[in-house]
Amino acid sequence: MIHVAALYRFARFPDPKALRQPLLDVCEAEGIKGTLLLAPEGINGTIAGSEGGIDAVLTHIRTLPDCSDIAFKRSYAETMPFHRIKVRIKREIVTMGEPAIDPLGGTGTYVKPTDWNALIEAPDTVVIDTRNAYEIKVGTFAGAIDPETDSFSDFPAWARAHRSELQGKRIAMFCTGGIRCEKSTAFLKAEGLTDVFHLEGGILKYLEEVPQEDSRWEGECFVFDERVAVGHGLAPGTHALCRACRMPVSPEERASPLFEEGVACPACAGTRGAAKRAAYAERHRQVGLAQQRGQAHVGAVAPKRESSPATPEE
User: Fold this and answer.
1) What is the pTM of this model?
2) 175 annotated active-site
3) Which among 4, 83, 96, 294 has most CB atoms closer than 10 A?
4) How far apart are the C-alpha atoms of 305 and 225, rounded to whole Å?
5) Range list of H helices, 171-268
6) 109 and 213 both lie in a single domain
7) How far apart (Å, rounded) are the C-alpha atoms in residues 117 and 286?
8) 127 with 191, same domain?
């Protein structure tokens, strides 16, 4: 069983480059794979490996500035969901493109998963899914507003365009693991919207803690690794990843005649030329051959998404 840890922390890192190599060294020594982002505003990522290896990396991360009590979400996978370890330096640990927004200066009110249902079912609450369209397609909370964004950096423009509709309302926001809500609630407060709340620990914590029979979640939750999606109890979901367009593909879509494993799905069928499709087909063939030999193939790596380093946003 592979242990998977999703984590983030907004903190002051005056010199994130100086933190990179020691963190990478610990990950490599412990056989940990995944991606971690370091930026002046903190750390974000998802890593996977043995329980002892994960604990060793978390112990090191807790020595970083203002990270002594960093929280993380632990889940499990049958096989390693990453192919390598990457520790990268970024301008932001989740890209919003609003340099003046500082979550350390104040965010919305945290709401625990066990209290979330009562908040979103209140008639005066507006519920907003801060994730992107391809994630919301996989699953969301019933009645949540879909901003129809392609990347998290599109969210400020959407919020400003709908500010009059949100003014005076109680606003409840959620995302995969919580990190996007730290910034989006801080942004709304900076825009003068004060009655703002967000789901503590994100969807992943809700699916982990709230019994399925009490859940208001519909569908699965897209995650940024080879699992593609998870369900209640963080059990592996049913979605796969289209290797051509990088979109999640449901079982129903995989039954479509437009779906070709490793080559195309209903979302991208007909958008690639013959040469590109042939290249995808050959890559898929090589991945299959590598699997038969018990080897990993770089062509099997799940493409990363803009708002996460192949991890949460989260």
Assistant:
1) 0.86
2) yes
3) 4
4) 10
5) 179-190, 202-209, 251-254
6) yes
7) 47
8) yes
Same domain, 85 and 166: no
Most confident of 24-28, 102-106, 175-179, 291-295: 24-28
**pLDDT tens digits along 83-139:** 899 999 999 999 999 999 999 999 999 999 999 999 999 999 999 999 999 999 999
| Residue 209 within any structural domain of the chain | yes
Distance CA 295, CA 106 (A): 47
In the structure encoding, which two tokens stand for residue 46, read together? 């998802």
| Helix locations, 38-122, DSSP H | 51-61, 113-121
- Which residues constitute the domain of residue 28? 2-89
Tokens representing 119? 């908040």
Q: Which of 27, 175, 181, 265 is catalytic?
A: 175
Cα-to-chain-centroid distance, residue 275: 32
Say yes or no to pLDDT of 302 above 60: no
Convert the pLDDT of each residue in 180-193 to its tens digit.
Answer: 999 999 999 999 99
Measure the CA–CA gap between 154 and 149, rounded to whole angstroms: 6
DSSP strand pairing (196-199 vs 125-129): unpaired
Residue 73 is predicted with a pLDDT of 87
